[in-house]
Design a protein that fits this description.
- Helix 3 packs parallel to helix 5 and helix 4 packs across helix 5.
- The protein contains eleven helices and 14 strands.
- By secondary structure, the protein is α/β, with parallel strands linked by helices.
- The strands form three sheets. It has a six-stranded mixed sheet with strand order 6-7-8-3-9-10, with helices on both faces.
Length: 326
């Protein structure tokens, strides 16, 4: 559904210096999947979205939506293809002087849809996002979550095949975030949407995404289905998807980090730890269920003199082990 091939975007500064924002991005998001794009500030996330919506022309490479290559299209055809992409923004950007219904109707009005058709479509969309009774409310009368629901309804007005969400929950509290993410998944299931979420919050990825890509300085550092990525023990995404609480170091003891999931079941890890004997202490641990797969990380401490033997015994049982730097 969404295909990026060797996508590259280079900007030139006033001093004629090249700044590479995207450097050979290859990415394929299948139809009906919720895919997360994560990365630190400056990783290229915003540039990627602008290239996906053809607001920026790539320096090279191609962007295709449902088999249609956007790069190189004429302005008229590009406008038509853009209607197949709905955008949900971090700050919603509703028109304050218009009601919720009028905000949802706006893109339909611009597209030349008749008043009667607009009214029917707007009523359907507001009902779909759980705001069937708030069509006459102005943005100032809505909560943050309700405003985002209006933004989602507006993004769906032209019946897009793809929904691009740029930090859709970063301005919301945790309860409202879960509600919005649940709504996005429900809409994906009901409408058959393909969803791309740009976010810096790994909790969003854990909650709603089927797959994820980590961008680092304009390149794909890691990508894949959630359960598969979480099973790449020791990787940046695996550590972020299954975070551990901090714990104080203990003098004379060394911390070892163990991981399970991705072919290593939890019971095997726990049995291997128990077999090390009474000198082992559990420092911290966490378990997550991602895309239906249980994955986790466990930190144990052992006497400094027993690090080598403990590590060897655990690895012999197929357990992923890393020594944690003090």
């Amino acid at each position: 559904m969404i295909s990026l091939s060797d996508l590259r975007k280079v900007y030139r500064t006033r001093g004629d210096r090249e700044v590479v924002a995207l450097d050979g991005i290859d990415l394929h998001v299948p139809r009906g999947e919720v895919h997360g794009i994560v990365g630190e500030s400056g990783a290229g996330k915003s540039t990627l979205i602008r290239c996906l919506t053809a607001l920026e022309e790539p320096s090279s490479g191609t962007v295709a939506i449902d088999g249609v290559t956007l790069t190189g299209l004429g302005e008229r055809e590009l406008r038509r293809q853009r209607r197949r992409i709905g955008m949900v923004f971090q700050h919603v950007n509703l028109l304050d002087a218009r009601t919720a219904a009028q905000n949802v109707a706006y893109p339909l009005r611009v597209a030349g849809v008749s008043r009667a058709e607009r009214d029917v479509r707007v009523a359907e969309l507001l009902q779909l996002v759980g705001l069937g009774d708030r069509g006459d409310s102005y943005p100032s009368q809505l909560s943050g979550g309700q405003k985002q629901r209006v933004g989602i309804a507006r993004a769906l007005a032209a019946e897009p095949a793809v929904l691009l969400c740029d930090e859709p929950t970063s301005a919301l509290d945790s309860d409202t975030t879960r509600q919005i993410l649940r709504l996005i998944r429900e809409l994906r299931d009901r409408l058959g949407l393909t969803v791309l979420i740009i976010t810096h919050e790994m909790s969003v990825v854990r909650e709603v995404c089927d797959s994820v890509t980590l961008l680092d300085r304009g390149k794909v550092a890691q990508t894949g289905p959630i359960a598969e990525v979480a099973g790449e023990h020791g990787s940046r995404l695996a550590r972020s998807l299954v975070p551990l609480p901090p714990e104080p170091g203990v003098a004379g003891r060394t911390t070892l980090e163990l991981a399970f999931g991705g072919g290593t079941p939890a019971h095997r890890v726990l049995a291997a730890v128990a077999a090390l004997g009474e000198d082992v202490d559990v420092a911290s641990g966490t378990i997550e269920t991602l895309a239906g797969t249980r994955v986790g990380r466990l930190r144990i401490t052992v006497p400094a003199a027993a690090v080598a033997s403990s590590t060897a015994r655990l690895r012999a049982e197929g357990v992923h082990v890393e020594e944690v730097a003090p």
